Amino acid sequence: MSKRMLDLGLLVLTFVFLVFITIGNEDPVVRQSLFANALPEHLWHAKAIYKVMYDIGIGGLLSLIFYLLLVRIPENAKRRRIRHSLERQYKIFKQDCLYVIVGITDHLIDPDKVDELLDQKAFREYFTQRVLPSQDRWHVFLNNVDEAALLRIINAVDLFREEIAFALSATEISSDEAFQFFKRLSGVIHSIRSTELGYDEIKPLSRFLWTLFSGFDFVTGYRKEDLVAKMIRSI
Fold first, then answer.
1. Could you read off the pLDDT of 191-230 as tens digits, one per residue?
2. Deepest in the core among 8, 76, 119, 231, taking most CB within 10 A?
């Protein structure tokens, strides 16, 4: 059951229990003003039925309150902590990779520039600029990445994957779309962990990084919104 359906069910139950409490209350004033007489008062079993409805309403409402206090509120707080942690780790992962990439292309790391390039549109514009007659910045990076730089990027990617794995195991992701997305993303990251230097060998890593940092999609083109950030927010 999705979180939305569960919330809807809880609202319906709350309403039903409140109606039971109102109808079954010993004081008939509210019941008569809202529902007239739900049962004819002259029936010998009417008071007993009202009492049962009142007890069910009170018991059900108390159960919902305890559920909210003991389950839903702590669960939501835990989900928020995990979401914020994943958001921080995603930003750290992108910054760590950008420090390496910018260091290779510009031979100088400007933290302000790195933060600016966290935006997908800014990243696309910056790394598609021609810095050599036959190469843009992105190709300069790919052609000059060395073993140490590759290792730093792989380590950053691996740490991000560990955070995804923790989020998937530590909380129930209510959105099926988000759950499947992170499963696929984790699988892609796992497949590029063994990337080695070489023109063909580095292509999968290049496609992964470009897709993630620029928002490129092979089907729809460039997205207006960071898909990873969007999916993290849906946790």
1. 888 888 887 888 999 999 999 999 988 777 888 889 999 9
2. 231
Q: Average of pLDDT values for 113-128?
A: 94
For residue 133, which phi and psi values (nearest 5 degrees)? -55, -35
- Residue 120 one-letter amino acid: Q
Identify the three-state secondary structure at position 128: coil
Contacts of 91 (CB under 8 A, 6+ apart): 118
First to last CA, the chain: 15
Structure tokens at 77: 């707080």
**What gap in Å lies between CA 3 and CA 11, rounded to an integer?**
12
The amino acid present at 217, given as its one-letter code, is D
Q: Cα–Cα distance between 173 and 180 in angstroms, integer?
A: 10
Provide the whole-model pTM.
0.79
Q: Which two tokens stand for residue 109?
A: 């790391």
